[in-house]
Amino acid sequence: MTESQPKPKTVADDKKVHGVVAEFTDVDSLLAACRRVRDAGYTKADAFTPFPVHGIDTALGIKPTILPWISLAAGLTGTTIALLMQISLNGQTELFEGIQYPYIISGKPFISLPAFIPVTFELTILLASFGTFFGMWALNGLPRFSNPMFTSPRFDRATDDTFFLFLDAKDSRFDEAGAKALLGELGGEFVEPVLEDDSSKVIPKGLLITLATVICLSSIPALAVLRMRVTKSGSPRFHIFPDMDFSPSKDAQQTTSLFADGRAMRPDVPGTVRRGEMDWDLNFKTGIDMDELASIDAPRAAQLVALQSDVAVDEEDEVAAEEPAVEEQTADEAATEEPAPAGETGEASENTSVAATADDTPWLTENPLELSEEALARGQQQFNIYCSVCHGMNGRGNGLVNRRAQEILATTWTPPSNMHDPTLYSDVYPDGKLFSTITNGVRKMPGYASQIKAKDRWAIVAYVRALQTSQDATLEDVPGSQRSKIEKEQADVQAKLKAAAEAEAAKAAEAADAE
Amino acid sequence: MSHKAVAIKPADDPAFQLPASLAGLSLPMIIGGIVALVGGAFFSNSAVGGRFGMSSYLVAYMYCLTLAIGSLFFVLIQHLSRAGWSVVVRRVAELMMIMVIPLALLFIPIAVSAYTGSLYVWSAEGYQAEHGIPSAIWEQKERWLNPNWFVARSLIYLTVWCGIAAWYYRGSQRQDETGEITITEKLQARSGPAVIAFSFCTSFAAFDWVMSLAPMWFSTMFGVYLFTGSILSAHCAICLFSFLLQRAGAMRDEVTVEHYHDLGKLIFGFICFWGYISFSQYMLIWYANIPEETHWFYTRSTNGWFNVSLVLMILHWGLPFAGTMSRHVRRRPWLISCWAAYILVLHLVDLYWIIIPEAGMGLGGAAGIIATLVCVIGMIALMLGLMLKLAAGTRVVPVRDPRLGESLAFENF
């Protein structure tokens, strides 16, 4: 205590009173006082003791904490979040359409609760712990760095040997004199007001500097990693997870000694149906109206069914049973009609002369694919990958392969068709036939069934039709809203061409004059 | 730490004696229990056939055994952790744990069945051929699962349990007379090794006596699973018996709301633990989907057992989990005792679900269920009769335990 120390504070100073505190020497007097304070109607009161005192909550009338409810709510939130997250990420539900990522894991269903439980359990526990921990903070008014009680010099003994009872000024019943009188009457010693803590609230500079330093230092590992990623080094790479970097799994096209055929990439098991392809019928897979075909050429239909069928045994039996009856009928038909070309009755994959011979196959005339912008874009992409090398990007039959073949005068080369040949238009060359050609190939062109999925082949068909239309389009095909724009562009281009031609003519004339 | 001074009654206070109304029940219960047990097993054998008779007996046996060894574990843990709160209810647990001695005698039919092949399929002739188990595997199995070695192991388990139980029971009884603090110190000092020995025996006994009903199935979790049910039901039984004793007039001032609250907390915790362990066992097997592992759960997800599995999930975990979560429930002795009784019933369903499917008779029908129930009731009655007989000659609270005062004054907050 030096001269620089301010005078002892009194209430007369214009400082705000936080409350009134009194000291008690033993637990029993404190508990008695607490009960009296509670009975006097004080709700905002608190007791400070050096050790836990049983029953002081009820004596002071402190209500049980709502912390369990916060924990429960946080825990249930965790449960809900975990389940919704996993269902939305894995599930194929109408509820979460648009963000679904159906991914089969060890053959379990998409919404597979047992697999979701560990994450659900963990998140429930995590959020319940957070809820409890931070809920406790919130209920205690944390983070608070100082309590006005600490301004009272005698209060240090609360952690040692003295009991304190405190009445808060925020209580509606509080008036300073009355509170002091009450505490004095209850046997409290050193009854005195506690003043609001008006010490500086500025965070010490040292703390800020330390914090800033810690934050800066914590970025070092991240910076080191970043630097390593962009610089070259002579020493071998550091592998944090060597077994993940050097996995024993095979890459594409590698061989293996594990299987008799040496292939590491296993082909589909016969009869495999890709997910989502179950309901595609035979028409979709062959491009042929099978019902129609069965009525005019039953053996071939049966053959196609057998070829495409996944449940081979059952259906073959069925077909075999039906066959005699159908055969008679077709025999009659065969007598009146032209015999089917040899290529047609063979296996579909050997069907190489579809376009050349008279063709009574009931091809599908309409693309079974639902036509949309995406389907066309997909068709364009697939066309550009697989078809454009020969047929050219615009379908005029002048792709790079063809050009090269012409250049070296390859003798066995058959030039690819021009897609814009009228014989390939949909009225003479139905969609189903085009699909079948892509699937099974024609002349030099191989079948693409093993490389392009059926759905994509149909998309290519659609794109080819769009290509054909585009090359033959008139202004009537353009939507009315854009016609004027195109007319204007057309006029611009023509004007430019005209100007260019005139300029050239003028130049030529000039040159002639100069001569 | 407490400011509350609780008077410790003198050791010969009538509050520590078993009420006469209960003591009189002892003899009728013992006789009725034996009759029901034997009758139930025979009825089960003749009415359902197959291995059902011995399976019913095993359900009854395991029910009482799990309660006894759960209580043994409770006592060991209280000494291991030097717990003060539990002193007033510890004698109830001690009376239950000492029942492993009569239960060791009741093991004889099971030991005999290992030779006759009337319970365990591995001891029956032709099991290997019937199920097409490769002989290389079966030879390995037989090195462990053969009647002589089985009975020898069982004797080890029973000896260890009975030894620990008897030693702790005697120590506690002697302290009642002398009040020596050194006895408590000795009991505490030995509790660590005792818990280790206990855990090994419990886990291996679960593998041998119950899991080997399906000899080709294995789960390293199974020992813990059975132990979980046993410690959960032991807490429930302690809670329920304390409540019933208080209702009958004993230890009225000693066991308070606080003790029920703590027992309730432990019951709640072990309900979670049971759910956690049983789900862990299920999920690993379900996920890996290896045929030899899944068949145990496959049996229990078909043929009527699926409903029992669902019942267990919802009624053994879900409902009591929600029901005992609240502090308000746990601080009402009659309410938490109701939940304890409820869990004890579900523990029986749990054991029925574990043991009976392997008898190969489906759910066993009404006759099988009734026969098993009669067996269980008979076994419980027999054990209760013996316990009451024992309790009548001693006290229901360890009256001179050095921590009795702490336990009496115990408060949760």
TrEMBL record, chain A:
Transmembrane intervals: 66-89, 110-139, 207-226
Comp. bias regions, Low complexity: 337-348
Region of interest (Disordered), ranges: 313-362
Ranges of biased composition (kind: Acidic residues): 313-336
Recorded GO MF terms: electron transfer activity; heme binding; metal ion binding
Residues in Cytochrome c domain copies: 374-468
Alphabetical keyword list: Heme, Iron, Membrane, Metal-binding, Transmembrane, Transmembrane helix
Gene3D superfamilies from the UniProt entry: Cytochrome c-like domain
Domain of life, per lineage: Bacteria
Protein name: Cytochrome c domain-containing protein
Protein species of origin: Rhodopirellula islandica
From TrEMBL, chain B:
Stretches of the chain forming a coiled coil according to its record: none
Keyword field: Membrane, Transmembrane, Transmembrane helix
Keyword Membrane: yes
The name this protein goes by in its record: Quinol:cytochrome C oxidoreductase
Statement: the UniProt record of this protein carries the keyword Iron: no
Transmembrane segments: 21-43, 55-77, 98-122, 150-169, 195-218, 224-245, 266-285, 305-322, 334-355, 361-386
